Amino acid sequence: MYRSDTTADEAAEITAFRRAEKKYKLYYEQSSKKKKKPKQVDLSQVLDFNSILNSHNQNDELPPGIAAVRCGFDDLPVFRLETRPGFYFIPGALSVDEQCKWIRESLRSFPQPPNRTNHNAIYGPVGDLFVAAKEGKVLLEEEGSNGDGQKWRFCEEGVAKLRSKGNACKSVSGAALLRKLRWSTLGLQFDWSKRNYNVSLPHNKIPDALCELAQKLAAPAMPKGEEFHPEAAIVNYFGLGDTLGGHLDDMELDWSKPIVSISLGCKAIFLLGGKLRDDPPLAMFLRSGDVVLMAGEARECFHGVPRIFIDEENAEIDSLETHFSEESHLLDYVRTSRININIRQVF
Question: Which residues take part in binding Fe cation (predicted)?
């Protein structure tokens, strides 16, 4: 699903992609105060497709190297980069209502078994994680075997304290697990140990509504006369300071079909490099509701996310905060997080 470069750290430090990652990564000022202050970052070279869209709508102008096409997608302009064939950017592709819907699904439904998450390796299948976090429950390691092979179960905090008193039962709060959620996989499951899709692993079909949305979004990047068939997806969850290092998505069979990438939550910086790590990458803002398509040659380009913004000035989530104003747990999560849904055709 992802292939990272295997060069030594010393070599990676000198590549153009690595330099860009270090440039935009979150660092803090040295201070004696308890509250850490983020270092200022020069964002003047970051492409802003929201501003490009506004300028295009007002005077039909575009920066050099950027073209716009209209593909019948709600009459929205779809931008492409002339230096990166197969890369498409659709700013504001999802309405605020749609964004909120998929944020809810990403937290409530997508981590549900049989979908796998980064927690499986330690805790096994963890069901109802968002509900457990909301209700203040604790995941407790059961003593012995219950016959179903499940060693960890959610219980009330008071019960967990009683059971763990005087013994070595391990426990972790649902809230902590939700904050440590980093990925979940939908549809065909990816086997990270073998680095391929394992069709024998239990899985549910990608929800119909997400399939329909992905098919609609994929249209600008699809070969003429063909339809996108969503078969797998990975949902990435980013918190403060989290990054996604430069990588390639190379485990799907047909690279002419796009990866459909939906951004939700706090604004981020996305780096799109070339076929080599030493090709200088382009930096661009990703806002909630933006969609990126990568097909053909663009599938051979290194890409990553070196930074998300959670401060009021840069996060740009006012509309999401308004919609979640009466859902405190979702509001608290969205204020410090970004979610990225990547939908793929495997075969």
Answer: 247, 249, 303
Using one digit for the tens of pLDDT, what is the confidence trace for 268-292?
999 999 999 999 999 999 999 999 9
CA atoms within 13 A on the CB side of 160: 17
Distance from C-alpha of 134 to C-alpha of 141, rounded to nearest angstrom = 20
The pTM score is 0.92
Rg of the chain (C-alpha set): 21
Is 148:202 a contact under the CB 8 Å cutoff? no
Q: In what order do the strands lie in the sheet with 338-344?
A: 66-70, 77-81, 87-90, 291-294, 259-265, 338-344, 232-238, 183-187
Distance CA 126, CA 33 (A): 39
Token readout for 311 is 């401060």
Question: Residue 71: which pLDDT band, with cuts at 50, 70 and 90?
Answer: confident
Q: Which residues are annotated as a binding site?
A: 247, 249, 303
Q: How far apart are CA 143 and CA 264, in angstroms?
A: 40
Inform me whether the pLDDT recorded for 166 exceeds 80: no
pLDDT at 230 exceeding the cut of 50: yes
121: left (phi over 0), alpha (psi -120 to 50) or beta: alpha
- Where is the binding site for Fe cation, in residues? 247, 249, 303
User: To which residue do tokens 């750290």 refer?
Assistant: 9
Does 145 score more than 60 pLDDT? no
Is-contact 340 238, C-beta < 8 A? yes
